[in-house]
Write a structure and sequence with these properties.
18 helices, about 25% helix, disordered N terminus, binds zinc ion
């Protein structure tokens, strides 16, 4: 709202100059140049980052900016790709001092756009220097921890200021980083030169790149580092760069390597083309650095627990993280929604097509995890059962809010926790989108006599322009429909819109693949392993209507569930069940007994220092979701999960 549309021909536009109210002085107004597709003429900006401040968790930055005399506006990135929201961490930018030939130069933050800094460059000055710090979180409450004694994650958007008035790809950066001694760094950027700092660490100079490629090429660096070749002998390298809290977490078994390599071959069979000259997974295995999953075109930031490799079998393929973020190189990065693409990082994004960007990535992430062998077939079905159950019985919010509207959630919520997530809804375009694309896959198979599938869509839509990576190929809703129509003709607009806008439920989509949702009184082995991994948490979502952690604290209480209707709320602590101290087994026994017993289940709950007994009149027994085969229907699902 504080900025003119980027298509405007004006180079400087004052916004809000008619907002003069009687008796008030004229406010100072947002005065930020509109981005133009023209080079930043004064020249290449030098960005030096000192990443050695691990103990104090500080990145120290010096930026040298060639300038022309006159008004200059420097921007700190606000709208972050992959976050789809105005979440640039400007609260952590500190110590900004601007100088010209050693003399201080005043800056003023724009009162209507706190991400913009105005500077008047005097005549005769050809270059200014900006010194500042990025104060990374010293505690998880401040945000994701990105520096530990043994690793760091540098995101360039967090340490860069850039001149307003130009498209990001028109501003060149010559970036270098001083790393702590003993650290090895991985990034999609190419290394131009490597020196040793007085502190003994590497000073790495990267080959100059435009701002859009710099921001799309973060760094993971660590003391304990291993690079694994995921595409041995391939012309286009794909590498897994792992940093871990300790060397033992870097150890892998041959079958784990084979499955990670199969992920690459299965993705290439699916998409056909590659939109990178090399691809680097930046992978942290840490209990200290915050987990992450953030896509880029030539890399991704991926964070898992330390036991990712060591507990591989027990975890039975819980995570589709690597397959998901890798898929984004095609879906979301090379091809990205036209309304999401912005010329720089301070023009608002629109998220209307995230049900394709994230929804189909959620679909392929899960499918490729199965096709690579990282997730066994039964676990793949059990994982899908959890999603189908959620959208059949645990999303009462779909009564008031359509999936399309949830694409606004990155901007609305920015992932803040919610009290009643099932009712408020959140970023539901991910998993609801996954089910919509499952439905589309089944429909293509059905209409084509099983000769075509969503694989054909993926290849036609994403697998184009092999080798191209420096420019993106945006798309609209109509482009999606046109490609579907080429695979097999149908009224795809109506098919998609009725599901996105809420007039056709999509939770039954799995039935089109030959399987249906069923409940039994035992969780699947996959769900059981997940509960075990969450350290004593218990799942009563489809019976009483809540999940509960090992200390009895209730998670999301399902709106209109038996527990909710009895007065139970999210965040209460469950203290006792039928007068016995709460633990998982006691509550399971009580739910089982109530199936034949007419008496309600008596729950003692605590809110702050208040205790209260709440009777829940529920007699449906334990209920856990599974998928069951529909006899006589073609089994598309098994074919979808099978390796190509
Ligand atoms: Zn994603």
């Amino acid at each position: 709202m504080s900025r003119p549309p980027f298509a405007s021909p004006a180079t400087r536009v004052r916004i809000g100059s008619t907002l003069l109210l009687a008796g008030l002085a004229a406010p100072v107004l947002a005065d930020v140049p509109t981005p133009q597709d023209t080079p930043y003429a004064p020249g290449t900006i030098t960005l030096q980052v000192d990443a050695t401040g691990l103990g104090q968790r500080i990145f120290r930055v010096r930026e040298t900016i060639p300038v022309a005399a006159g008004a200059l506006t420097l921007l700190y990135p606000q709208w972050l790709p992959g976050n789809h929201s105005p979440s640039g961490p400007i609260d952590k930018l500190a110590g900004l001092r601007i100088t010209a030939a050693g003399k201080p130069l005043a800056w003023q933050r724009d009162p209507l756009n706190v991400y913009a800094f105005h500077v008047d460059v005097p005549e005769g000055v050809a270059s200014i220097q900006a010194d500042y710090q990025f104060l990374t979180p010293t505690d998880g409450a401040q945000g994701r921890v990105v520096m530990t004694p043994n690793m760091l994650n540098l995101q360039w958007n967090a340490v860069v200021l850039y001149p307003a008035g130009h498209f990001a790809h028109q501003i060149q950066y010559d970036a270098s980083v001083t790393y702590p001694a003993g650290f090895t760094a991985a990034t999609a950027l190419d290394v131009a030169q490597r020196n040793t700092s007085p502190g003994g660490g590497d000073v790495v100079h990267y080959t100059p790149v435009p701002l859009d490629i710099l921001v799309d090429s973060p760094v993971y660096a660590g003391r304990y580092f291993r690079q694994i070749d995921l595409a041995p002998g391939a012309k286009v390298p794909v590498r897994l760069n792992v940093v871990a809290d300790a060397p033992k977490y870097l150890e892998t078994k041959p079958e784990q390597l084979a499955q990670h390599r199969a992920l690459v071959t299965q993705a290439l069979k699916l998409y056909g083309a590659q939109h990178y000259d090399h691809y680097d997974f930046l992978f942290s295995l840490s209990g200290q650095m915050g987990g992450n999953g953030l896509e880029h075109q030539r890399s991704s930031e991926d964070g898992e627990d330390t036991d990712y490799f060591s507990e591989w079998d027990a975890k039975a393929g819980f995570d589709d993280l690597l397959a998901h973020e890798y898929t984004h190189s095609w879906n979301g990065k090379f091809r990205r929604p036209a309304d999401l693409w912005t010329p720089n990082y301070n023009v608002p994004m629109q998220d209307s097509l995230l049900w394709l960007y994230e929804g189909q990535t959620q679909y392929w992430g899960n499918v490729l995890t199965a096709r690579s062998g990282m997730r066994p077939l039964q676990a793949a079905r059990d994982d899908l059962a959890l999603t189908v159950a959620a959208y059949t019985d645990n999303r009462p919010g779909l009564d008031w809010r359509a999936v399309q509207d949830t694409t606004n959630d990155p901007i609305i919520s920015q992932r803040r926790p919610k009290a009643y997530r099932n009712y408020q809804l959140s970023e539901d375009y991910y998993s609801a989108g996954q089910l919509i694309w499952l439905d589309v896959d089944a429909r293509i198979r059905q209409l084509s006599g099983d000769r075509k599938s969503l694989d054909d869509f993926a290849r036609a839509f994403f697998g184009v322009d092999d080798g191209a990576w420096q420019a993106q190929k945006p798309y609209t809703f109509d482009d999606v429909v046109a490609t579907l129509d080429k695979i097999v003709a149908d009224d795809w607009t109506t098919f998609l819109r009725t599901r996105l806008d809420g007039s056709v439920p999509f939770a039954s989509s799995v039935e089109a693949t030959g399987w249906k949702l069923a409940y039994t009184d035992k969780p699947s082995d996959y769900a059981k392993a997940m509960q075990k991994d969450s350290k004593g948490a218990a799942e009563f979502t489809y019976s009483l209507g809540f999940s509960v952690d090992k200390d009895g604290k209730l998670g999301d209480v399902r709106w209109d569930s038996p527990a909710f209707n009895a007065g139970i709320g999210s965040g209460m602590t469950l203290v006792a069940v039928n007068d016995l101290t709460y633990d998982k087994a006691t509550l399971e026994d009580a739910v089982k007994a109530a199936k034949t017993d007419k008496a309600p289940i008596r729950l003692l709950v605590r809110e702050f220092n208040h205790y209260r007994t709440i009777d829940v009149d529920y007699h449906g027994g334990l209920r856990y979701p599974h998928l069951e085969r529909i006899a006589g229907k073609p089994d598309y699902l098994t074919r979808i999960f099978a390796a190509r």
